[in-house]
Design brief:
- The complex is a heterodimer of chains A (about 575) and B (about 600).
- Chain A contains 4 helices and 44 strands.
- By secondary structure, chain A is mainly beta.
- In chain A, the strands form 11 sheets. In chain A, strands 10, 11, 12, 14, 16 and 17 form a 6-stranded antiparallel sheet that branches. In chain A, strands 2, 3, 5, 6 and 7 form a 5-stranded antiparallel sheet that branches.
- In chain B, strand 11 (about 175-185) and strand 12 (about 185-200) form a beta hairpin.
- The longest helix of chain B is centred in the C-terminal third of the chain and has 10 residues, at about 555-565.
- Classes of the chains: A mainly beta (about 575), B mainly beta (about 600).
């Protein structure tokens, strides 16, 4: 029954997972846990999802503009225009009229990103020149009206073809996905293309059609899931099935062939055959830390390695642990996985993990011993000792997974609400964590101390099964702000550039680092970065053609370090640092 | 994840199962017996649902057969074949080899439903003659080998076409669904067919395949994808979007009564079902959530279609998180009837508050909608045996749930409670009138004899739960004195009939209710024998065997009224195993 319900409830549940920070939610490309370097750029609404909106803000500013087709300049009707500002916690959606025009009123002042989308076209941000790059933020003052905000959307490229079986007959109901390399959690990973129409299921003739794609290099993968999610299927599995197959017909991602699409290009010949493979069974035992069977625990199989987004795509493979502690999974394709066992609820749960390479044979006798997650309690204070001017409910404390790979395969993140006494408890923690606070505007995280020791930027593994106290999260109103103009060598402002601010100290070039931020200049050529922690030696570089998320890549930072301008930033300091456009490509 | 299902949107359960290419299993909840909560059990047949992950019981019986294409007679490979015995929870799944043959081994003795499905073909059960009729069960003894369990699969019919907007431009991302009438909860209702339908591509084209022959209605719904829902979570929506597209039926009407039927023959392709979506005014729904203490309520407000029309997935459903003052805003709501509901955030708890409010949206915005939540009722009770002896089954093997007594109703709560070691339990968040139902998973042979509150029998009347109240002393009594009715179905010349449905129903028409324990339908097996277990004793029953009975039609009062004239009466005592042969009636359902 559970299976069927999941199918029905999926839409709701996925929304709920966003809202609740569900640790079981599939990892999203890009880390998904919030404002890591360069993650805030695309999908403006995501910057806000996760918290209910504060009192619906009503301002006095207005944005107006027009959305047209890039190829012939004709207006696009019923395009969706989204604006959002993380700072101002405001966001709206509007639809264009027959002339392609839109108007969004009653906005509060702030720095907005604006995105236009229309099915069949490539979604673009205002000022965005290239796919996988951010656009130009719009700085909007109180009472200001900005009009003539134009976005020209290119028609999307199309990938289409036919999926067949090993006998050349069409395969119906196979899922086909366009994947591409993109920066996620500080490294280039093959991830599913975010666009809604970048996945399709084949029809009875085996045909699929992926459309609205931005130009670029793609890898196409097709998979056919037989049976249902094993989580409710008590029956034995099939002996053979199809491995996830990449164009031109290989189960091996390294042999996948790239399909390059120019703007608005259609390639309808991306046809290939699914590779039949033996499917194996896994079985084993899950034992709790007490030595008892982990009754009613859940075992998940998560694809690891290479393709970061794969796990989410395939929905994983899951099984419930029976009364004797045994579990079994069927229909497992060969590959590298991590086996994860979870027991109990979020507060009192236990967890075990095991890396596993599955070959052609059934795997029996796996043994996982779960350990309870750690609990850590603490409280929130202000640096001056003054009372807060917001309510505890507006604050959320998160224990973010500090290791990018653990994050990519879904280690999950502990989140806690803050009680009326400003105390919180983070539960069920595994892996090394960084403690972060999502504070209302005007406040930022100053430090995190565990019994006097500063762990603000120190990934901390809390001892399994233990309950620690004494975590102190200090917030400050001293929010630093860095602004400046990006100019070319003739001193002219440049809009089409990305400013990267990062510390000279390479030890701080970590995943989820607070010290690395990327920003785009607004319509006046001014960039703006807030809430950087104080540091003696920051570096600033302005580049063109930077991919989203690339600023979190330590290897990349090393290559631009020498071209950077150096400056210091004090506690809560507001500083102007102009940045020359680097000539580096 | 689990939260969502505490609201009854469960009508889609069976439907999505058939969408997954499985023929409906008798015994498993048939498409559309709407029940409450998640771990629901079929209201009529005692099925051991089995614990997820638990190894299925192993036996020595074998089913063998072959699958062919109906049109060419050639063997079909990679057809998924499933055998399932709901009672013993035994079963297996396999796929055919290159020669179209399959074998399912190690089956425990039992009565099996066998089904075959493959991509673009119409999934069928063994012995199934017509699309909306069940198949023939196969009775297997220990060590028995059932040979020649053969299927011939027909290529599914196809509906395809193109969706354009009011100016004739292709509309992409539109969800198109083929729907047909089927019996659900005792009456004919429009339900989705052909899986989850299709989404139009950049050329506006869609293709819904794998359809059984029959009459279809085609609906198109635009612009309310999953993406929008996520967006709405943190984003307020500006009111510049004054119009949009309401769900539209072929040939281009928002009214189901004006929808045009598309009739498909076996394997037929109709690729000309093109139609236009016309914009309509979309409304906003604004309001506040207040909890039982008069404070601002918090949670996620959802708007769901007010009556089931099979479009829950694709329909104009949207959500809004409440602001700290309890206010919410839902945008882009097409005119129609809806249920507003609220889902608390965080893990489920006994103090969670729920509300369901039916609303009607015309073309104007709805303001000041008050959604007042309540904690629901709590029911405490104990599981007992009818002879007063301590239960020989373990508390973990007892499954209870409180299902809504009215069909097609949306209501919160009712999920299965944990049974304590002393067999007591506590159900929380109960609303509306509920029927308490349950089963013993292990061992088999137990049935729910009755449910009592302070001596009063509420098994069939249910309990009208008053929010906030605590109900003590619920007794849920199980008995091993299970009845069993079996016999042979024969034609006028006394020959066994396989292709028939046996309906057993109470003479008292007040018991012809939704979720009635007294109403059962079964198919004879390959020998012409039917078998019905666990009917409540002490009732005047009627029995009839008919052909061409649609799935679910056995609960239709119209049919039962006509069947009453032709049916044969029988009594059934507690624990009685009765053999009743039935002559095939000429009644046309």
């Amino acid at each position: 029954m559970f299976r069927a319900i999941v199918a029905v409830a999926f839409v709701l549940a996925s929304a709920a997972a966003f809202a609740q920070g569900d640790p079981n939610a599939p990892p999203r490309p890009g880390g998904g846990q919030g404002a890591g370097p360069g993650q805030g750029g695309r999908g403006p609404a995501r910057a806000q999802a996760g918290r209910p909106p504060a009192e619906l803000p009503k301002g006095t500013s207005v944005l107006r503009g027009q959305i047209v087709a890039a190829d012939n300049g004709s207006p696009i009707r019923r395009a969706q225009v989204r604006v959002s500002s993380t700072e101002a916690r405001d966001g709206r959606v509007a639809t264009t009229d027959a002339q392609g025009r839109f108007e969004i009123k009653e906005l509060v002042a702030g720095r907005y990103t604006m995105t236009a989308s229309k099915a069949g076209f490539v979604s673009l941000q205002y000022g965005q020149r290239r796919a996988s790059e951010s656009g130009t933020p719009i700085e909007l003052g109180d009472g200001q009206t900005l009009d003539k905000l134009a976005i020209a959307l290119p028609r999307g490229s199309v990938l289409a073809g036919r999926i067949t079986d090993e006998f050349g007959e069409p395969v119906a109901n196979a899922t086909v996905i366009a994947m591409r390399y993109a920066y996620a959690a500080g490294a280039r990973r093959m991830t599913p293309t975010g666009a809604q129409n970048a996945r399709d299921t084949t029809d009875d003739q085996g045909h699929y059609r992926l459309f609205g794609l931005p130009p670029g290099a793609y890898y196409v993968t097709a998979m056919l899931r037989t049976g249902g999610p094993e989580i409710t299927d008590p029956m034995g599995g099939e002996q053979s099935g199809y491995a996830p197959t990449y164009y031109p017909g290989t189960p091996n991602v390294n042999e996948a062939q790239r399909v390059t699409l120019a703007v608005s290009q259609e390639n309808s010949n991306v046809s290939f055959g699914l590779i039949a493979t033996k499917l194996v069974k896994l079985s084993g035992l899950v034992i709790t830390s007490q030595g008892t069977p982990a009754i009613n625990g859940v075992v998940m199989l998560v694809a690891s390695g290479g393709a970061g987004g794969r796990a989410a795509l395939q929905g994983g493979n899951g099984s419930r642990v029976d009364q004797t502690g045994a579990f079994r999974m069927t229909n497992v394709a060969p590959g590298r996985y991590q086996v994860q066992a979870r027991l109990g609820g979020r507060g009192e749960g236990e967890l075990a993990k095991m890396d596993l390479t599955v070959g052609a044979d059934d795997v029996d006798g796996l043994m996982l011993i779960t350990a309870p997650g750690a609990k850590v309690g603490g409280n929130v204070v202000s640096d001056t000792g003054d009372p807060f001017d917001f309510r505890p409910q507006q604050l959320q404390i998160a224990a973010r997974v500090a290791d990018a790979d653990a994050q990519m395969i879904g280690a999950g993140g502990g989140q806690a609400r803050v009680g009326d006494d400003w105390a919180f408890e983070l539960a069920n923690l595994s892996d090394a964590r960084l403690i972060r606070a999502a504070a209302p505007q005007g406040w930022t995280l100053k430090s995190v101390n565990l019994n006097g020791q500063d762990i603000t930027d120190v990934p901390t593994e809390f001892p399994p099964g233990q309950t620690l106290t004494g975590l102190q999260v200090t917030l400050t109103r001293k929010v630093s702000a860095l602004t400046g103009v990006v100019a070319d060598d003739k001193g002219k402002p440049v809009l089409d550039a990305t400013v990267i601010i990062f510390p000279a100290d390479e030890k701080l070039w970590t995943y989820q680092s607070r010290f690395i931020k990327a920003a785009r200049p607004d319509q006046d050529g001014t960039y703006r970065v807030t809430a950087l922690p104080p540091n003696e030696a920051y570096l600033a570089v302005a580049l063109q053609g930077l991919e989203d998320g690339q600023a979190g890549d330590p290897e990349f930072l090393a290559t631009i370090k020498d071209t950077a301008a150096k400056f210091s930033l004090g506690d809560g300091e507001t500083k102007a640092v102009d940045v020359k456009l680097s000539t580096r490509q | 994840m689990v939260r969502a299902v505490f609201f009854s949107v469960s009508l889609l359960l069976g439907l999505s199962a058939s969408a997954a290419g499985q023929a409906p299993q008798p015994g498993a909840p048939a498409p559309g017996q709407p029940t409450q909560g998640m771990q629901q059990m079929p209201p009529r047949t005692p099925v051991r649902p089995g614990r997820p992950g638990e190894a299925p019981p192993k036996g020595t019986a074998i089913i063998r057969g072959m699958v062919m294409a109906a049109d060419t007679g050639t063997p079909l490979r990679r057809v998924q074949v499933r055998a399932l015995s709901p009672e013993t929870r035994g079963g297996g799944v396999t796929s055919t080899g290159a020669d179209g043959r399959f074998e399912i081994k190690e089956l425990p003795a039992g009565r099996y439903t066998v089904s075959a499905s493959k991509g673009a073909f119409v999934a069928i059960q063994y012995g199934q003659k017509r699309p909306s009729e069940p198949g023939t069960p196969i009775e297997l003894a220990d060590g028995q080998i059932a040979e020649k369990v053969n299927f011939s699969l027909s290529r599914g019919a196809v509906i395809a076409g193109r969706i354009v907007d009011e100016s004739g431009e292709a509309m992409s991302g539109v969800n198109v669904q083929a729907m047909r009438y089927a019996f659900i909860a005792g009456s004919r209702r429009l339900t989705p067919a052909g899986g989850m339908g299709d989404r139009t591509d950049d050329q506006g084209a869609y293709r819904v395949y794998g359809l059984a022959p029959g009459d279809y209605y085609v609906s198109a719904t635009s612009g309310f994808g999953a993406g929008n829902m996520v967006m709405n979570l943190g984003t307020t929506v500006s009111n510049t979007e004054a119009d949009g597209y309401a769900p539209t039926y072929y040939p281009g009407t928002p009214n189901l009564s004006e929808a045009q039927r598309v009739t498909l023959k076996l394997g037929q392709e109709n690729a000309n079902i093109h139609f236009t979506l016309n914009p309509t005014r979309l409304a906003q729904v604004r309001g506040r959530v207040l909890n039982s203490r008069g404070e601002a309520g918090r949670g996620m407000v959802m708007i769901l279609p007010g009556e089931f029309n099979g479009m829950l997935m694709m329909g104009p459903n949207t959500t809004s998180m409440t602001a700290p003052d309890g206010s919410f805003l839902l945008s882009n709501v097409a005119p129609g009837r809806y249920n507003l509901s609220i889902r608390p955030m965080g893990m489920p708890g006994a103090t969670d508050e729920y509300a369901v409010l039916p609303i009607t949206v015309a073309s104007d915005d709805l303001d000041n909608v008050m959604l007042t939540t309540g904690v629901g009722a709590i029911a405490r009770g104990v599981v007992q045996t009818d002879d007063g002896t301590p239960p020989p089954f373990r508390p973990d093997d007892v499954q209870l749930f409180a299902s809504t007594a009215e069909p097609m109703m949306m209501s919160a709560g009712g999920g299965p409670p944990k049974i304590n070691p002393d067999y007591t339990f506590e159900m929380t968040s109960l609303f509306d009138r509920r029927l308490v139902r349950g089963a013993i998973q292990n061992p088999t042979g137990w049935y729910l004899k009755g449910v009592f509150v302070e001596g009063e029998d509420v098994t069939d009347s249910g309990v009208e739960f008053t929010p906030g109240r605590t109900y003590e002393g619920l007794q849920v009594v199980f008995s091993q004195k299970t009845t069993e009715l079996s016999g042979l179905v024969t034609d006028s010349r006394g020959r066994p009939v396989v292709d028939a449905s046996v309906v057993v129903f109470p003479a008292n028409r007040e018991r012809w209710t939704y979720q009635s324990r007294y109403l059962r339908t079964a198919r004879p097996d390959t020998e012409g024998r039917y078998n019905i277990k666990s009917l409540p004793p002490g009732e005047d029953y009627l029995i009839i065997a008919v052909q061409n009975l649609e799935q679910g039609q056995g609960g239709d009062p119209d049919f039962l009224t006509r069947a009453r004239e032709e049916a044969k009466s029988l009594g059934l005592n507690e624990g009685e195993k009765k053999a009743v042969d039935v002559k095939l009636s000429t009644l046309v359902p």
